[in-house]
Amino acid sequence: MTPPVFSSSQSPRPVSWNGRRVTVRAMSIPRYFWMTSSIDVYLDNECILRTGGQLNLTGSVSTTFNSGGSSHQAQLQWGNSRWYRFPYQLRIDGVLVDESLVPVENKWIPMTIAGVIGFGVGICIAVGMILIVLPIVHQLLNHISSVSQ
After folding, report:
1. SS3 state at 113
2. What's this model's pTM, rounded to 2 decimal places?
3. Domain range enclosing 49
4. Does 9 map to a domain?
């Protein structure tokens, strides 16, 4: 089941599991031309789960990690990004630990790349139009001047 989409005013809050601080972070990564993000889960400062920037709008990833001498199962489920924020659910050993939104921290990278591509496409279209329209205008002017003589 896909996690629900929360209002944009909701922000991540401090969460802990077995006395350890849980942090969920999202970063744009250079896969698929920076059009994907990796959502990562940390216990204190130790990364226990990475989605790896899958080209899926929604999905789920699970992994096994060790904490306190025991093996545990972490599962992260995420939904569609809205305004560079992903709704997610984090379960550890089948128990819901956190359900919130995680903002993409470096969202300016894909926005900049899209802007540069858009600008480049616009320039190409403008140059193409000039190369097509100028000869037509030149022929039209020549035709008008030859008719008027």
Report:
1. helix
2. 0.67
3. 15-106
4. no
